[in-house]
């Protein structure tokens, strides 16, 4: 069974790196897109920040509910503020999840499993995309990056 205190601490070690990544202010990195049609650095950062909140809500509600948030941003400061807001809201949600909610079965995109499986997937998802952000920054010429955790 997933221990929520342990999970939240582990999640925060990774989320703190996201906060560091959105403080990088080099050559308008926040708008950098490594390929045509790809997510920009800022959009990807917000995708990471919002997704774990969506998964936490799914565990609490017992079903997937798409986010209704339409993050509007134009500056690095906007992205920093939104990442901070998502982090605080997600931390609160994670703290409210019960053992019963973690054990409940949930269906998500054709897969049914106990909710804790999807919460573990949420962390994997965040780590995966954080790696992409690190790669974006390198491609954009950033020399000094935070350690991945």
Automatic annotation (TrEMBL):
Pfam families: DinB. This is DinB family protein. It comes from Paenibacillus provencensis. The keyword Metal-binding applies. InterPro entries: DinB (IPR007837), DinB/YfiT-like (IPR034660). Belongs to the DinB family. It comes from the Bacteria. Keywords: Metal-binding.
